[in-house]
Specification:
Blueprint: H1 5-17, E1 23-30, E2 39-42, E3 47-51, H2 58-70, E4 85-90, E5 95-99, E6 109-112, H3 114-126, H4 131-136, H5 149-156, E7 162-168, E8 178-185, E9 188-191, H6 197-211, E10 217-221, H7 229-246, E11 249-254, H8 257-260, E12 268-273, E13 279-282, H9 287-294, E14 302-306, H10 309-322, H11 324-329, E15 330-334, H12 338-347, E16 354-359, E17 376-378, H13 387-397, H14 399-405, H15 410-419, H16 427-434, H17 441-454, H18 456-468, E18 473-480, E19 483-488, E20 491-495, H19 499-502, H20 505-508, E21 512-520, E22 523-528
Parallel strand pairs: 3-11, 3-12, 6-10, 10-11, 14-15, 14-16, 16-17, 20-22
Antiparallel strand pairs: 1-2, 1-4, 4-5, 7-8, 8-9, 12-13, 18-19, 18-21, 19-20, 21-22
Helix pairs in contact: 1-7, 3-6, 5-7, 10-17, 13-17, 14-15
């Protein structure tokens, strides 16, 4: 088994030794230009990790290395192509061969952005109305991932039984193959469109790495996205396995300490800005100082699944104004519609990561929440409508307050808001165009923030639910006017209606009880552990 502890330990040891490698990258020299300092790198491992805070320049460094190797100009690179090179030692000949603009290009180089690539693939499928008929109905299902199923199950914390891939040519640009995944689990089969973004990203990454040519060089951007800490460690074990088996060199960017956990500190580099505000690379011999210098983000506890980009912006704005720690601890993944969110909720559960489905308020009353494998919650709202409708309606009712937030002609904004019809799908984009704004997001954020300000009690209750959803709480049951309820942190919750059928509530009146918050018929309720 490739994922046994002894085998995994060997894979990690071989990274440093590069045992059996025919080619060994020995040195990278990037001549700085503009905002990038000159970067000389002596490579001593098959895996080199480039770390740093968001915006530090990790992607710039990766793309510069890729550009030097391939001769292909990449966006956001700032290096002198004439004087930059990569030296690769040909072990059998015991000589260094140079690659770069003044030499030759290296053929087998792959740049992977798994999170972005997976989204592009899903969008391609969604926008092709005949995709299923053309490619899937009679497609050739390959079991190519079977050998690595043990790793995949650990990474995803999912008891998958089988995965097949249909490899489709001629759909993506640059002659890239589009992999369509089908997962088999407990008699259920679901494809790429029905799975969550995290699951799809991992399957795409695994497939990409096992199908790459031997002796290739890979640039890999932040593979930890959407993964909890333990899953990140399992992913790195898989990457170590593939590097060793296919004799790859991987240059990986990250801002997670879990990605670095098993790696030798000498093959880790920190991206930062020097005194001249230029991108440069440094290293630390002591790992504790090294991690402290990075200012790494806390480990992710889970992921919120939302329906679309606007819902994602709503939850980001709420948490940014009320509980920024949740914003740091949880990914927010938009799945393009409630049906995709519910597909995940029906057949996916993780023991490593807390997953919460955050549906729009217009779904309240339509679902039986306790029939899903993971918690169902709803975005806060005063009406049973989509968040865009809720917030547009609030803006129209509070035009003067909204106008005060915007740095533009007050009369002009007010006139356009009043005259604009409430087609919530394009409302902010249309308003932005009428006001000659270059970006509609500033309008959206200000509108959401205004709505938060005017609905603070509702927002505070929503955030309290997020903090405690399906977590054990001890509260006291209370009774008023023949109704039973609980109070947690000054916030009142009704009891789950099913409790009345199960227990004598009068017996528990005034007593401390353990239980948890959940949603029932669209409402936040408290359920006891009896």
């Amino acid at each position: 088994m490739l994922d046994r502890k002894a085998e995994v330990s060997n894979f990690w040891r071989h990274l440093k030794e590069r045992k059996g490698f025919k080619l060994k990258v020995s040195r990278i020299f990037i001549k700085g230009d503009g905002i990038m300092d000159t970067i000389p790198l002596d490579i001593n491992s098959a895996l080199t990790t480039i770390c740093g805070k968001n915006g530090a320049g990790k992607t710039t460094v990766l793309k510069s290395i890729y550009s030097v190797l391939t001769g292909i100009e990449a966006e956001n690179t700032f290096h002198n192509v004439e004087d930059s090179y990569v030296a690769i030692n040909e072990v059998s000949n015991k000589v260094n061969k140079f690659y770069g603009n003044n030499y030759t290009t290296f053929d087998n180089v792959l740049y992977l952005e798994p999170a972005d690539d997976a989204i592009i693939i899903k969008n391609k499928i969604i926008n092709d109305s005949t995709f299923n008929d053309d490619y899937i109905e009679n497609g050739d299902e390959s079991p190519i991932l079977d050998e690595y199923l043990g790793y995949i199950k650990k990474i995803l914390s999912n008891d998958i039984e089988k995965i097949t891939v249909i490899e489709i040519e001629g759909v993506l640009e640059k002659d890239r193959i589009l992999p369509y995944f089908q997962v088999y689990k407990r008699g259920i089969k679901y494809g790429s469109l029905e799975m969550g973004q995290g699951e799809h990203k991992i399957l795409y990454l695994v497939w990409s790495m096992i199908t790459v040519k031997t002796n290739s060089i890979l640039m890999l951007e932040e593979p930890e996205a959407f993964l909890c800490s333990k899953s990140q460690e399992y992913l790195m074990d898989f990457i170590a396995c593939i590097i060793d088996r296919k004799k790859l060199h991987v240059f990986l960017s990250t801002h997670s300490d879990h990605i670095l956990r098993k790696q030798n500190v000498t093959s880790c580099l920190i991206v930062k800005r020097n005194n001249e505000d230029k991108i440069c690379l440094t290293s630390e011999k002591d790992k504790s100082k090294y991690l402290a210098a990075l200012g790494l983000e806390p480990s992710k506890k889970g992921v919120y699944l939302v329906e679309d980009e606007f819902a994602k912006l709503v939850i980001q704005t709420i948490l940014n104004e009320t509980n920024s720690s949740l914003l740091q601890e949880f990914y927010i993944d938009q799945l393009q519609g409630e049906s995709h969110v519910l597909q995940v909720a029906m057949h996916y559960k993780s023991s490593n990561m807390k997953i919460v489905c955050l549906l729009d308020a217009d779904q309240k009353g339509k679902l039986k929440e306790d029939s899903f494998l993971i918690p169902i919650a709803y975005l806060p709202a005063n009406q049973i409508v989509a968040p865009e409708q809720e917030i547009i309606s609030y803006v129209k009712s509070n035009v003067d307050s909204f106008v005060q937030r915007m740095n533009s002609s007050k009369d002009n904004i007010k006139r356009e808001i009043v005259s604009l019809e409430e087609n919530h799908h394009d409302w902010f984009e249309e308003l932005s165009a009428r006001l000659n704004f270059t970006n509609s997001e500033i309008l959206k954020v200000n509108a959401i923030s205004l709505w938060i300000q005017g609905n603070r009690d509702k927002i505070d209750k929503f955030v309290h639910v997020l903090e405690n959803l399906h977590e054990n709480l001890t509260v006291k049951i209370e009774k008023k006017n023949e109704n039973y309820f609980v109070n947690s942190n000054g916030i009142t919750y009704d009891l789950d209606p099913k409790l009345k059928e199960r227990i004598n509530l009068e017996f528990y009146n005034g007593k401390d009880m353990k239980g948890y918050l959940q949603f029932s018929k669209g409402n936040e309720v408290f359920n006891f552990i009896v």
